[in-house]
User: What shape does this take?
Amino acid sequence: MSMPLAVLAVLAWGTIAGLDLVSVPQGLLSRPIVAATVAGTLMGHVTAGLLAGMVLELYALDVLPIGASRYPDYSVAAVAGGVAASLVPLPVAVGVAGLIGLPMAALGGWTLQKLRRRNAISIQRRLERVAAGDGRAIWELQRNGIGRDALRSFALALVGVALALAAAQLHWSLILRAQWLSWAVLAGGIAAALGGALRSAGQGARRRWLAVGVGVGLILGLAQ
Amino acid sequence: MKPRGEALLRLFAVQASYTYERMLGIGVGHASAPLLRTTLSARSARERHEAIARSADFFNAHPYLAGVAVGAEVRAEQDGVSGAVITRLRTALSGPLGSLGDQLIWAGWVPALVGVALATAPWAGLWAVAGIVVVHNALRFRLMSWGLDLGLREGLGVGAALQRSWLPRGAEGAQRAAAFAVGLAVPIVARTVLIGGSRPEVWLTAGCGVAGALLTMLPFARTRITGLRFGLLLLGLAILVVGGSQ
Assistant: This one.
């Protein structure tokens, strides 16, 4: 795929992944391991996208999108991370993906709050019609909500892909100790995933299952 | 399309106009509308509109289980239950449907599937990723369909039916599977990324990760030090190291 076509494809994919997080269809497409891997594949570098997705996924495991909680949005961030990873040498792919993806996740979380406030204004404007049971007004709210989220996701994808393309202009192979970025991003991911797992496991049987999982993972990891 | 199918399809977008004030209310109203129009076709337009307006009021639940409330509310409207009782039913369902759904899905099968994908990706690659998307969506469709039918069948008795169902046990099992899968995945992902690193570099990375996990567990740090903030802090330190090396 030519570069301009690949960029258009990842922008479209970023929009889909962003929509999937909350609005529609919530089909796991927004998970970093899916979003970044597909982005890397579209850019012609599956392995880099997969590596970026695996590490950013560790961060996303720390998030429980419960009720009115506010959380980072890793969907479009992972797409941008996957694009960045596929454009740089593999040893620094994870570091550059984190460099782009982690701030993008924080930015994405902020835009989600703005989106919800905008949805509330939209409902307020149609309050009388909704209170009268006007199905058309309810449909308009749903349609506009999806439209707004698509715009939000597209704008985020545009920013993320632009940052990824800019990061790719650096001569990463000439930068000393650039691998430290990858290790820092990985260490943060380990902290996020393990911390989240420990907190949700509580004190009982689930913590034992977590310990068994870590043990088996260590054995398999060392045998790799 | 039949009303049940249309309602099921609309449940995929139940959070499309999510707000902090009404939560899923508008989405639930949108999903209920096709069923209410059919089941209340013999009633006056005013009664139908009142039912649709009730269905779009504040409602909070896990999005995958919102169909339970949609079904129960439609059944209650069909049975001629008063509006005040239906509003109380919605309020009563919010807590259990949110809590059970969060345990079963957000803290259960989603991290379990993701953990499996992370642990198998070094060997299975794209297949691991595609596999969890297919399995998740098959499970999700089955759960939504089951929930809608349970609500339509039980009406006001749906709360008790939920407690008798497989959901509470399923939620505990899914969370155990998630704990195991995430535990399994973390060392495998670390090893995959750290291939080629020297022993001190591997220990430093793993040590920072474990220390960070313990730090986020401290009572005063839980809300202040998130995984993302810790990662950004480490990234900032790494940038200083890399910048200082040039």
About this structure: Chain B has a mean pLDDT of 94. The first helix of chain B runs from residue 3 to 11. Chain B touches chain A through 103 residues (CB under 8 Å). DSSP finds ten helices and no strands in chain B.
